[in-house]
Amino acid sequence: MNRLYELSNDAEHLKKAAEAFTDAAGSYQKTNIKSRIAECLWKAALLYGDLGNHLKAAENFELASNNYTSAAEKIPQLKDLYQEQALYMQAWNEIEKARHHHARQEYGSATEHYEKAATMHKSLRQWSYLRPQLFSMG
């Protein structure tokens, strides 16, 4: 579906792809595989963001975060990884909320959400090597 979108530029393909990922998350829900649910919701969130449906993207990022948190509790060996992923998804939840408010010209609200996302990103270990460059300006 993504490739069809790239070829045709028809947003309907992105919408169908997002729905397919949401359906896949529902299928994984039946087997209670939290990490796979989270991955599918993450992919759906990215596509909803591309479609400009920022609130739907934020909702999916939040659901992905919740599922990564649950996966961290279920699989202690991967706890650190899944907790990082959960925080990363939460940061993207804030970014999509900010994009929603920005599109509505609600700049104060957008700023608050962007600041929350920046704070979350600062605490992510996977990006720590960039801290001096990214966060020295503010």
Overview of the structural elements:
The protein has helices at about 1-10, 10-30, 35-50, 55-75, 80-105, 105-125, 130-135. It has seven helices and no strands. The chain has one domain (about 1-130). With about 140 residues, it is mostly helical.
Q: Level of helix content? A: over 70%
Distance between the termini: 40 Å
The Rg value, from CA coordinates, equals 16 Å
What is the total domain count? 1
The average pLDDT score comes to 90
The largest pleated sheet is described as: none
Global geometry: flat
Strand content: under 5%
Structural class: mainly alpha
| Helix and strand element order | HHHHHHH
Low-confidence stretches: 130-138
Count the beta strands: 0
Helical segment tally? 7
For this entry, give a set of tags:
single chain; 138 residues; mainly alpha; disordered C terminus
In short:
This protein has 138 residues and is an all-alpha fold. It has helices at residues 2-8, 11-31, 34-50, 54-74, 79-103, 107-123, 131-135. The chain has one domain.
Topology:
Blueprint (H helix, E strand, L loop, with lengths): L1 H7 L2 H21 L2 H17 L3 H21 L4 H25 L3 H17 L7 H5 L3
Helix pairs in contact: 2-3, 3-4, 4-5, 5-6
